[in-house]
Amino acid sequence: MNYTPEWIPFEATHAFSSLSVNYLHQNVDLQPFYEHAPAYEGIQHSIAARSSSKVNRTVLVATLLRQYEKVSTTELVKANIQKLAEENTFTVCTAHQPNIFTGYLYLVYKIVHVIKLAADLQQRYPDKNFVPVFYMGSEDNDLEELNHIYLNGDNLVWQTDQRGAVGRMQTTGVDKLIDQISGQLSVHKFGAELIMLLKDCYRKGNTIQDATLQLTDALFNRYGLVVLIADHPDFKRQMIPVFEDDLFRHTAFSLVKETADVLSQNYHAQVNPREINLFYMSDNLRERIVEEDGIFRVNNTDIRFSPEEMKEELRQHPERFSPNVVLRGLYQETILPNIVFVGGGGEVAYWMELKSVFKHYGVPYPVVLLRNSFLLVNRDAGLLVKKLSLDAEDLFKDVNVLLKRIVQANSKLQLALAEEQQALAELYTHIESVAGAVDITLNKHVKSLHAKAVSGLQVLEKKLMKAEKKKFEAQQHQLQKLKSYLFPAHSLQERKENMLPWYAQYGPSFIDMVYEASPALAKEFGILKLD
Predict the structure, then answer these.
(1) Are strands 278-282 and 321-323 parallel, antiparallel or unpaired?
(2) Domain co-membership, 173 together with 190
């Protein structure tokens, strides 16, 4: 699979927050909000901090082995799981919810980024082991966010009336969605193979988290990626002291609120903490826990606990307690020997609010790294880009801006107007010098006449531009077509499109291409032009 990479600053895309951009540039005003710089030096400090903090590796390995019992994975994945038992093994982690069929393109970029960075660190520090991990946020209950994909201009939705954590839901009904997309994908070289994979992963009897584990493993197991489902009682048991503290003393609320208040002076605060940052969860339920008059209540239910009953419930059934965004990162870093977390702009923003929480509970805060981002330009789009003489940064500019430039570059009238404006400026400069020699006070009047003449020419220029644009309707149509393709629904491609059509066309080499193009420590946005 041949491609040509180009790189532009993230800020040139106009699609990333000021916090993300300033974090990439290590602005001084953000430094109080994180522990280690997103650089090799910061990673070394993170390794040292993690080395002095113990993780229950026995539980980690045993739980992962149980989760992989029904997955036919590679020897490399199995070896990486076993390596996690060793004290000199560290993880590089990213996290995401179990969107059906991987959800958005950027999930591929996130996962490949941790794989690439782990491989890079393995070469730099051969005396240690580095394992790439995908932490599945399967407890998320936002079904409307996870139940659809955008494919060839259509928003395709998995219809289900199930409730609770999406990861625990049965895959019933997903087969209808697979049948719906089968015709579109099967025409490609790897389409039929991909459809068979989806049917196997989302087969009857599997849960969404089972299917997501199986699909993610099938796509990335040759790279040794380990997928972790955090929804497990043995993992949750390690969080009992933190969960109890959150329920009864609201420590995280106070710490995050204080940080958010300071951060919001210059940036948008991504997280608004609650006094209790836990959900109560069963197979068909995931609702917030709230406290009213000394009684703990599960929102939108009749479930109630006294303080003692709540403590007993937590001790006996930790798996029924699910952390929200304030505690999720702490949970992740408690059960993993993690040194780097790779996330999108929103994730970087909320991690900036969590440093004091990690410090309070004595859990090492990892290096936080903004994930790699790409724009994929296929051959037809690439030919159009070349025909319109656009560079990489032009792809992110408004159509009207680009069209105006094309008109100005190709219009004889525009060239003539520019020459006339120059001649006009020279004329009035001469008149001003002549008038000034007669009476210096006339200069002001001459300048006024010049300004009126320039204003008249500018009005004429606008009218001429409007008329000229009609002669460039073909270019305008081409620009609109290109923008519509590269930015579906006026969004970054990676935030809208799914990976299925790309994989159906190119197969495993698509992921190999992303891996090859991915830098380990990225500070630029990639445009990949496919031949």
Answers:
(1) antiparallel
(2) yes
- Reported as type and span, the H/E element at residue 298 is strand 295-298
Stretch (H or E) spanning 339: strand 338-343
Q: How many CB atoms lie within 10 A of CB 40?
A: 15
Angle at which helices 379-387 and 473-486 pack, to 10 degrees? 140
DSSP for 74-98?
A: -HHHHHHHHHTTSTTEEEEEEEE--
pLDDT exceeds cutoff 90 at 100: yes
According to DSSP, the residues that pair with 259 across neighbouring strands are none
**What DSSP string runs through 250-283?**
-HHHHHHHHHHHHHTTTS-------S--EEEEET
270, part of any domain: no
- Helix (H) or strand (E) holding 6, with range, is strand 3-9
Q: Tell me phi and psi for residue 131, to 5 degrees.
A: -115, 125
Shared domain for 208 and 233, answered yes or no, is yes
Closest Cα partner for 167 from 229, 236, 102?
Answer: 229
Angle between helix 105-124 and helix 208-220 axes, rounded to 10 deg: 50
Residues 6+ apart with CB under 8 A from 306: 294, 295, 296
Q: From CA 13, how far away is CA 22, in angstroms rounded?
A: 14
Please name the amino acid found at residue 22: N
User: What torsion do the CA atoms of 516, 519, 523, 529 make, to the nearest 10 degrees?
Assistant: -10
Residue 112's SS3 state is: helix
Instruction: Write out the residue range of the structural domain in which residue 365 sits.
Output: 3-237+326-373+494-530
pLDDT in tens, 244-280: 999 999 999 999 999 999 999 999 999 989 999 999 9
- Nearest CA among 346, 366, 352 for reference residue 261: 352
In this structure, are strands 129-136 and 367-370 parallel, antiparallel, or unpaired? unpaired
User: 168-184: per-residue pLDDT in tens?
Assistant: 999 999 999 999 999 99
**Which pLDDT band holds residue 524 (cuts at 50, 70, 90)?**
very high
Under 8 Å between Cβ of 526 and 6: yes
What is the C-alpha to C-alpha distance for residues 338 and 282, in angstroms, rounded to an integer?
28
Q: What are the helix (H) ranges across 13-73?
A: 18-24, 40-51, 57-67
Nearest by Cα to 110 from 475, 531, 522: 522
pLDDT at 415 > cutoff 60:
no
CA dihedral for 493, 498, 502, 503, sign (positive or negative): positive
Is the separation of the CB atoms in 71 and 214 below 8 Å?
A: yes
| pLDDT bracket for residue 206 (50, 70, 90) | very high
Q: Are residues 500 and 464 in the same domain?
A: no
**How many domains are contained in the chain?**
2
